[in-house]
Each structure stands twice: as structure tokens, then as C-alpha cells.
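Backbones bend. To wit:
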Amino acid sequence: MKRKTLIIVLISLLLLGGLIAYRIHTNKEKAAANAGAPGGGRAAAKVYGKVIHGQPFSDFLSLSGSIEADEQIDLQTEISGIVESINFSEGGRVGQGQVLITLNDAELQAQLAQARTRNNLAAENERRAKLLLEKEAISQEEYDIASADFRTAQSQIQLIQAQLSKTVIRAPFSGTIGLRNISKGSYVTPANIIAKLVNTNRLKVSFSIPEKYANKVRVGNQITFNVQGVDGEFTAKIYATEPAVEANTRTLLVKAINSNGGKQLIPGTFANIVFPLETIANGLLVPAEALIPIQNGKKLFVLKNAAATEVLVETGARTDADILITSGISEGDTVLTSGVMSLRNGARVQVTLR
């Protein structure tokens, strides 16, 4: 009985071993066949693609900037005093040289009258001393003292007149005056800001450009920009730049001038700026969705021998839908544009051209 059982077990083991050997041999044949087929025998992934052709492209930079007034100041007094009159309307237009406020000058007027009296006396003393000197009745030193007193009295009058002129605040340029921070009868000092005066007949557009493109900035170049909340596109002409790149930000400060003909723009607002670089005759533009960000740059897949081939690329400017490729692909390449995130290098693909 034991012998019979042993024989049955041995036969079962031989049958099992033969089955295992057969399956191993069959799997090796299938693996060899698959290894010789493109894509390792996997079903081809269905993707969309685009044949890239060169086309004219105006390269540009998209920058952020700000709108500034052509001229803008905080109105302040040079001396302290009581406000006697306010001669402007808040938010109104004022002309260059227009009187804006006057301060009480009664004390200075009294000082001026006193100084003139002293000046008259000093002038008479100087006249008499000169006559006496001619008659050798006094020394040269005594005459010099009288003459110095006269000149000092004249200087005192000039000093008080200069102080009096500071009691009248005039507009240094034409523009729009803002909201005032004082009232009639207020006591103001040089530290008080009376109001803002802004000239918006022209506006400045201020922006910074990366040092990589600093040598492309030219006085007279035209830029375009738009402002949030204002319809339309505006232009400005570059009129000045800083002479050196800012060390901390590695950017060059640039300013352009806009005529503000429609008075639509307001100083202090942000501007979205398009700075033109150059026109490329055969720019290679690919859809933005074809690009895959990686650690050391960007890549995309092109079609080669019915398979997806990974290519590292360098990019330039972009439009709303496309990105300029500066290196990595050639004209006529078929770039895969959909399903690229799940592709692997060498994967078989079935491409539908768009």
C-alpha cells in the first residue's frame, strides 16, 4: 500500500514539473516575440499631434509697471504761520504761478517797517560820515563802520522781504490739485502737507527689465500697455533709463512717456506692459499644453518611428495659446499635444494630427 502511494506521488510530481517547464518555455517565447516588436507589445496610445512649421513671430516680454504723473508734489510751506486765505477748489485745475494760499504776514510787515526805518537812519549816517571823511574830520575806520551799518540794514530788509514772499504759496506748475488738509485759520508748519498737485497732461510709465534684455532698450522705442478697468491698449515712448542695472534685483529701470490724450489713465495704477524684442522670420511655436516642466527645464514629445520620443527644449516668449521654442526641435517635427503627461519615452502612439 505504501509503495503504491509513493508511485502515485512521484507520478504527480513529474506531471507538475512538466507543466511548469512547459509554461516557462511558452512565456519565454512570448517575451522574445514582444521584445522584437515596437513599444514592447503594448497597445499604441491614441494622442493628438501637430506638425510644426516656421512662421513669423514678434518676440516680446510681458512686464508689470506703474503709471506715474509727469509732475507731482506735496504742497508745503517754508515758514510757519496762520492760514489767511485758500484760493483753490479741491480737485480743480490751477495754473503755474497761481496763488494757492496766503499766510498772515502782519508780524513780518511790522519787522519790515522797522528795518526800513533803521536803513534810513543808517543811510543818513553813512552820508554824513562820507562828508566828514572828505574833510578829514573822521578817520577811515569810523567811515567804514558807518558804511557797514548801512549795508547791514539793507540786508535786513532783503531778509524780511524774502520771508514775506514765503507767506504766499504759488503753484510751481499747472495741474490738478487734490484734497486739502488745512482750513482757513489753521496754523501750519513746514511739516504739514497742504495738498497734492499733479500734472496729468502727460504720464510716465515706469517698469524694470531683466538685465538679460537691458541691451535691447533704446530711447525712442515704443511699448504698448493696458490698465485694468480701462478698455483699449495704450502706447508710450521710452525717454530715459537708469545708467546702471540695479544690483539687488538685476533689473534696469526704464521710463516711457504717454500723452494721456483721453485723460483715461490715473497715476498710481498698475500697467501690463508688452516690450517688443525682435521679429523672428521662422519661429517654431508649439501649443502650451505640449510642454512638460521638469527639474532642469522643460521637455516635450515628438513622433519618431511611430513612437513618442522625449526631447529637452528651451523656450522664449509666449502668446495666449503657444510658446516659442528656441532650441530642441526642428521645422517639420510632429509634436504630441495631448496625453503627454502619461507617456513614456519610446512608447508606441497612434497620432491624430490637428
The longest strand covers residues 55-75. Residues 35-40 have pLDDT under 50 and may be disordered.
